[in-house]
Amino acid sequence: MHLSIPPSINYLTGHIDAENVVCKETTLGALEGVFANETQRAASAQDQVIYQVEMLPAQHAEGELNFGVSHIEPGSIGDELHMTRGHIHQRKEQAEFYFGSQGEGLLLMQTEQGEVSIEKVFPGSVHHIPGFVAHRLINTGNTRLSALAVWPAIAGHNYDFLEEVGFNVRVFRSSTTYEVVYMDKAGE
């Protein structure tokens, strides 16, 4: 019998400890068209890391699951809070789970018909993202927001949702905390 040590997760930071962790950084320069104020985004440091994803090597077979962690840095572009690009699954019927690890933020979910729901993300929070729902994480705090994710290997990611439909909600820094603003189709 062979005893092996599996990957582990630090639940307080969301850091995955494994030999073969895949890490991806998304900089401000890669987020053209994501923030409401494109002029402000373009004038800011393009190499600034907005979020990172750590994940175990991707599985691809039917019935398999993938596991990863998104880390969104605190801050804003203009007054709009840092967020992930957001996506809907290529296989739209596939659901996903998020688990809050550190920091505070929001999980924005939107159906293709434009119906929006928002959940607070905090250490220990559990979020079921149904199929046919686009989703993004937004950091509303002053520290890194981290959320663990488990999704079907066959789900895929469709980032064209932003251009095809777009999110109807934006989250801006306010004098006390944050403000959720519903946008019309023109983005105003």
From TrEMBL:
Q: Which SUPFAM superfamilies match?
A: RmlC-like cupins
The record ties this protein, via Gene3D superfamilies, to: Jelly Rolls
Which UniProt keywords are present, listed alphabetically? Gluconeogenesis, Glycolysis, Isomerase, Metal-binding
Residues annotated as domain Glucose-6-phosphate isomerase prokaryote? 31-164
Q: Name one GO molecular function term.
A: glucose-6-phosphate isomerase activity
The pathway entry for this protein reads as: Carbohydrate degradation; glycolysis; D-glyceraldehyde 3-phosphate and glycerone phosphate from D-glucose: step 2/4
GO cellular component annotations of the record = cytoplasm
Instruction: Kindly state which reaction or reactions the protein catalyses.
Output: alpha-D-glucose 6-phosphate = beta-D-fructose 6-phosphate
| The protein's enzyme class | isomerase
Which Pfam family is one of this chain's hits?
A: GPI
Recorded E.C. number(s)?
Answer: 5.3.1.9
| Any GO BP annotation | gluconeogenesis
Q: Which PANTHER family does its entry note? A: CUPIN TYPE-2 DOMAIN-CONTAINING PROTEIN (PTHR35848:SF6), OXALATE-BINDING PROTEIN (PTHR35848)
Q: Which family does it belong to?
A: Belongs to the archaeal-type GPI family.
Under which name does UniProt file this protein?
A: glucose-6-phosphate isomerase
User: Which species does this protein come from?
Assistant: Vibrio chaetopteri
